[in-house]
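Subject: for your reference before the review

Hello V.,

The reviewers asked for a structural picture of the protein, and I figured it would be easier to keep everything in one thread rather than splitting it across files. Below is the amino acid sequence we used in the manuscript, unchanged from the supplementary table.
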Amino acid sequence: MNYWLFKSEPSTWGWPDQLAKGDAGEEWDGVRNYQARNNMRLMQLGDLGFFYHSQKEKAVVGIVEVCALAHADSTTDDARWECVDIKAVQSLKTPVTLEICKADKRLSDMVLVNNTRLSVQPVREAEWKIICALGGL
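And here is what came back from the structure prediction:
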């Protein structure tokens, strides 16, 4: 299993929106960055990801699961852009902020800490476990 992080502006699509979709999940559409798209192409069914609120909150707030493999993004006719579908799995008991991640030396190599702009990024298993623990899971 691989682990990922999906960034979203809560004013556009927040954790409550993702939770409301239930087991049906939702396309992670609108991504227009090749590196983020390529990360989605690597995803497998059942891979887990952190749901991260960007903008003001800047925090991991939940866990999602990949429920559909990379496919054409329905928000564009441009064949270059693909997306996966994700469904909510669990809320973190305590949001884990970017500030907390940057302060934790064990997370110093994490993509989120070093490239806060990438909207879909890989997470190492050790990083996954640390953030889950910090989030009360």
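For the response letter, the relevant points are probably these. The chain has a mean pLDDT of 96. The helical segments are 15-20, 34-42, 98-103, 111-114, 125-134.

Happy to draft the paragraph if you're swamped.

O.
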